[in-house]
Amino acid sequence: MLDRPKRTLSTPRKVLFAALATVGLLGAAEVGLRVAGTVYMERYRGSVERGLPQDGGDEVWAFGDSFTFGIGADDPATESYPAVAVEGASRRLGRPLGLKNRARPGLNSTEIVDEFRDSLILAGPRRPAAVVLLAGVNNERWLGQSGQFCLAVDTRTTVQRSLADHSRFYNVIRWVVLQRRPPREADAACIEIGGGFDRLEAERPDQALAAFRRALELDPDNGWGHLGVGLAHARTGDHIAAIPAYRRAVEADLPSPSLPLVLAWSLRAVGDANGAAVLAGQAVEIEYLRDSAEVLLGWLAFDAGDPAAALEHFQVGGHLARTEDGPPGGAGSTPYALDGLGWLALQRGDLTGAATHFRECRVRGDLAGVTPHRLGWCHLGEAVSVLLEGRSEGVAELARVATADPSTREAGAALSAWAVALDEGCAAALPAWNSTPTTPWAVAGLRACEFADPPAPAGALSHLRSSPSANVTAWVDPGDTRLLHADLLRAGRLARDAGVPLYFMTYPNPDGQPELASATHFAGDEAFVPVIDIRDRMRTELAEGAAWSDLFVPDGHPTSRGYRLMGEALGAVMSGTEYEP
Predict the structure, then answer these.
(1) Which H/E stretch holds residue 199?
(2) Considering the chain, what percentage of its residues have pLDDT values greater than 70?
(3) In whole angstroms, what is the distance from residue 542 CA to residue 565 CA?
(4) Can you name the CATH fold of 289-464?
(5) What architecture (CATH level 2) is domain 59-136+483-574?
(6) Are strands 98-101 and 531-532 parallel, antiparallel or unpaired?
(7) Inter-CA distances, 168 with 154, 174, 491, Å
(8) pLDDT in tens, 116-156
């Protein structure tokens, strides 16, 4: 019997069948991952939709910033929204729940989610009954603060992005590769940039500049690195060096809507009023940049000798003329607008009005959480107004605080010497003035001492009623919410892995931070996390006759009543009761 000839495959068929087998295996892996993920997510979603588990832990953990801590309440320990929510949920469930409020004022979204992660690790096998999280507002304090510069812009096409993002197998392989891949130079640059912004926050611009330069050696085209160089130079008053760095950031297509505004401030500082006005005029058209741009336009009008226009811009930018439709002076730009009004009053010789504006600037800055050394011009202005009256009381302390601001450091030291000259005579002040002989305040002191001892400040300082260099501080840049979105998704993964119900809150201002609320809702949809959006409830309260001051303190934090509305909404959802805003 003849053997049947052995059948073979041609090379093209081998390639085809190998490809089909690979596709089949990948498809099977994808299906398996999707089935497992669906089962797990349905179980997690069901536990969340039912509210707090009856057999779960006896504590609710709260993570967030000052809005979760309870700043603005009469007693944050008992009147913050987590405290109110736990009180209501305990009553509805018929069992006592404890609260661990781990929020801290000033935290950004990355730090908040890190706190959640660390708390899970430290708790070991013990788990809370639920976790509530509110984050995002402090991501705006710096252009690119705390990680936005690490989130690369996605350049894939829509089709590529859709296929990759929806492939479980691709995401598993990507995660494995990223765990083992050594850091790239761009990653190392990102770390340096993060350190640079931290040093700027700590008022160490020289150290920040060194960090940004190290980052640019690793990644010369990094727009965040160039922006950092510009901010570091601006912080020390070197706007000539800041401007080309800002322009390099613009050329790098940095996704930072506020970048043209900080460039405009530096252009104004070097005398390019036209260039600054063009950029400020463009920024006014962007809702969340409008207040800051109005303040800048006020200074440009001040420089141009148009006090009426300056007054109007400062009042609009600082919300100082609003009484019916919102909180007077409740904007983040309010202290800086009051600073402008103070120097405007000095210009027209109204020393009492100037001192009042400068003091109000410091009060509003404190309410808004602005550290004193970022209001150096307010302290400096009040010191000048006191000196122009021929008095020295309090000048030394005001000038001392001003020296902590790099842009007012030398002027503060010179003004402190003025107070010494008035009390002790010229000889006691000369060493300080001679150490900064080019500072206008020192020049004025040295000249005044040529004619009188002690000197007469009213005449010697009269030429100082002109525009100071505006302090470029924490301009709001909320347009980029990628960091918040990524951190909230990370919080969702942590909660799912721990089997803990998680709830997201939105910020309560009915008209503020709309981009943060949108990012929170998007992340909640993706992570199957309920989002308690309290803004409609706040609008209803206002429409029904509540005054803004009933619900919010001047800096925008809720009052005890505002926190109670937030807590009641959260408590209803946590206890499985339908919430009606």
Answers:
(1) helix 185-201
(2) 76
(3) 12
(4) 1.25.40
(5) 3-Layer(aba) Sandwich (3.40)
(6) unpaired
(7) 19, 10, 19
(8) 999 999 988 888 999 999 998 887 655 555 455 566 554 44
